C-alpha cells in the first residue's frame, strides 16, 4: 500500500481509501486550505494587481 506524508503535519498516511488525501485527516485538509486562502487574500489586499499591458500598446 502506498504511504504518503501529510503535507500539513508530516504524519504518515495512506493514499488508498483516504478521502482527505494527500492529507491525513479532514482537520489537516481544512487547515491547509484555510492557510492557502489566507495567503491568497493577504496578497491581494496588500498589493493590488498591476495591469502590465495597459501601456504596452500605443
Ligand atoms: Zn496531517
UniProtKB/TrEMBL annotation:
GO terms, biological process: regulation of DNA-templated transcription
Short name of any one Pfam family annotated for the protein: YacG
UniProt KW keywords: Metal-binding, Zinc
GO molecular function terms attached to this record: zinc ion binding
Keyword match Metal-binding: yes
Source taxon at top rank: Bacteria
PANTHER family referenced in this protein's UniProt entry, alphabetically: DNA GYRASE INHIBITOR YACG (PTHR36150)
Protein name, entry field: UPF0243 zinc-binding protein yacG
Species per Swiss-Prot/TrEMBL record: Desulfurobacterium thermolithotrophum (strain DSM 11699 / BSA)
